[in-house]
Amino acid sequence: MAITQLSVFLMNQPGALVDAVSAISGAGANIRAMSIAEANDFGILRIIVSDSDKICKLLGDKYLISKTEVVAARMDDRSGALYPILVTLSEANINIEYMYAFTASAADEAYVVFRVNDVKTAEAVLNANGISTLSDESLKL
Amino acid sequence: MKQYYQPEIETAPREKILEIQNEKIVKQVRHVWDNVPYYRHLMEKKGVTPDDIKSVDDIHKLPFLSKDDLRETYPYGMLGTDLKDCVRIHSTSGTTGKRVVAFYTQHDIDLWEDCNARAIVAAGGTKEDVVQVCYGYGLFTGGSGLHGGSHKVGCLTLPMSSGNTERQIQFMMDLDATILCCTPSYAAYIGEALAEQGFKPEDNKLKAGIFGAEPWTEEMRHQIEKSLGIKAYDIYGLTETSGPGVAFECEEQKGMHINEDHFYAEIIDPDTGEVLPEGSKGELVFTSLDKEAFPLLRYRTKDICILNRTPCSCGRTHIRMCKPMGRSDDMMIIRGVNVFPSQIETVLLNEGYTPNYQIVVDRERNTDTFDIYVEVAPDQFSDLMSHIQRMEKSLESALRTMLGIGPKVHLVAPKTITRSEGKAVRVIDKRKLH
Q1: What's the topology of domain B7-328?
Q2: Is B328:B395 a contact under the CB 8 Å cutoff?
Q3: Which backbone phi and psi does B137 adopt, to 5 degrees?
Q4: B275: buried, middle or exposed (CB in 10 Å: 19+, 13-18, 0-12)?
Q5: Contact call for B411 and A64, based on CB within 8 A
Q6: What span, in angstroms and rounded, lies between the C-alpha atoms of B123 and B249?
Q7: Cα–Cα distance for residue pair B228/A35, rounded to 1 Å
Q8: pLDDT given at position B403
Q9: How far apart are CA B24 and CA B5, in angstroms?
């Protein structure tokens, strides 16, 4: 289970993101979710794509890129839906390094992506509490 | 009106100076031959013996010394006396691999302090003066050199060392300092700090400043003179030859008089080593004439400069050198500290980075800015910003430890450092210093 996030090192300057996005689309990938962390001189583009292995190889020549396992938990697209997920993780003593969310194709569905210190436990406790999580395979559909 | 610390030497006729030099060089070469096996070996390799050196005209026969020789012989290999006769050491800035330790007997300290006393008197100093020394004290020669010179002149000496600008200003104003000794950038900084506290240039009692240890321009001189209400004098020296005071400016401010009774200067072609005729631009080489503990013959300073033998209206007869016009190696002087790109390379490799980097030095508000752009290596990249920032901090701290001053590190993507003809441009110095 768990899904693969790609992290790409980008310079914090105009044009850096458009180049990266163009390379990703040129490789035929659909970005399902993304977020950017920024520092003064550089940024880290974090993306969830449909075929991470292939994209990682294709972009690897041009970009500094790394793979990280993250947890993508399904939730309802409504007020208060995030709360029980966070409580579940917190009670299992899971630390969230960062997170971002995206909505799914079904109208009432959303996903929240967690970078945590313990992916296995996080997924186990979420699933045990009736919260489903995505796998790389499910992203390919 | 004209003031000299040692008028009989400083204004001696040329023939007299030559006589002193010729007498001293014969003894100095014999001293080195007898006591420094390393240099004796260099002489033997070149087929020169002390008998070949009868006057300064023969100095060109002697082999050169460079910083590499001093590193090779670290720590005692250049020692010309018993260690028990030495009373002090000083050391260059820069660190592992680049450090040079110089030794001094009491005689060496005395002659060095005399040189600094000459500089202070040339800047108008008398025993009535209060000299504020805010060069660093310690291994660095700046503090001790001017401090000793100030004592010799009989000035009241404020041994402030560098930093703590608030305290510098307090002592300057409360104790009526009249002569300021520090790096030109620190002088400029003090000038700004005074203005920020609402002081006007005429509010302080300063009349002169003796500034050195780093390159500075005429524009900077004017700016300092204006902001502090003083006359700013240049001073030159290097740890290898003693420290500051090897050469100093007189009131004419048209070059620095080299203390020729202690140091013999030559200008050479840095590529061929050939001595160039007077007035040529080339690398400055010094031969100590009467040092005991650390006598260096034909030491290559790597400073590019021109010598001028025309008489100076100040009355001093010693030859003058211009401000160094550049370097024949890649050493940079940043905030008064000597920095070699190779030191930065060593740290990068130790810390797991590729040696792809670029150094950018600039000057903002009279203070050097020092930025290093480093390409991130795949092993170091992570999705966690905190991890990357921790590495950046750790690299900054390793660089600070190695260099003695802290650069700002900027991590950049691989293969983004500008390369020209396949070779990376390592240093971009935007300061207009020469």
Answers
A1: Rossmann fold (3.40.50)
A2: no
A3: -95, 160
A4: middle
A5: no
A6: 8
A7: 53
A8: 87
A9: 21
Cα–Cα distances in angstroms (integers) from residue A53 to residues A48, A72, A141, B169, B381, in the given order: 11, 18, 15, 63, 18
Shortest CB distance from A64 goes to which of B385, B386, B414? B414
Confidence of residue B351 (pLDDT cuts 50, 70, 90): confident
Q: Last residue of some domain: A39, A68, A97?
A: A68
**Residues 6 or more apart whose Cβ sits within 8 Å of residue A95:** A116, A117
One domain, residues A52 and A102: no
Q: Are residues A11 and A62 in the same domain?
A: yes
Q: Which residue type occupies B287?
A: T
Range of the domain at A35: 3-68
Could you tell me the CATH number of the domain that includes residue A78? 3.30.2130.10
Q: Which pair of structure tokens corresponds to residue B318?
A: 């010693």
Domains identified in chain A, total number: 2
Which DSSP letter does residue A133 get? B
A61 touches chain B (CB under 8 A): no
> Which DSSP category does A77 fall into?
S
Q: How confident is the model at residue A30 (pLDDT cuts 50, 70, 90)?
A: confident
CA distance A107 to chain B (A): 30
- C-alpha span between B66 and B284 (Å, rounded): 12
Q: Decide which of 1.20.140.10, 3.40.50.720, 3.30.300.30, 3.40.50.10490 is the CATH code for B337-429.
A: 3.30.300.30
pLDDT tops 60 at residue B95:
no
Which residue has tokens 């050479």? Answer: B268
CA B192 from centroid of its chain's CA atoms: 24
pTM for the whole thing? Answer: 0.76
Chain B residues close to A66, C-beta within 8 Å? 378, 381-383
Examine the domain organization and report whether A82 and A135 are in the same domain.
Answer: yes
Which residues of chain A does B386 touch, with a Cβ-Cβ cutoff of 8 Å? Answer: 97
* Chain A residue at shortest CA distance from B375: A64
In B, minimum Cα distance to A47 occurs at B383
Contacts A11 to B, Cβ<8 Å: 412-413, 416
Q: Do residues B65 and B79 lie in contact, with contact meaning Cβ atoms separated by under 8 Å?
A: no
Residue B376 in tokens: 């991130």
Q: Could you tell me which residues come within 8 angstroms of residue B27 by beta carbon, excluding any fewer than 6 positions away?
A: B290
Q: What distances in angstroms separate CA A80 from CA A87, A134, B88, one per listed residue?
A: 12, 21, 74
Between CA B96 and CA B109 the distance in angstroms is: 26
Tokens of A104: 């799914």
Q: What is the ipTM, given to two decimal places?
A: 0.86
Task: Return the residue of B nearest to A67 by Cα.
Answer: B383
Q: How many residues does chain A have?
A: 141
Determine the residue type at B196.
Answer: E
A105, with CB counted inside 10 A (0-12, 13-18, 19+), is: exposed
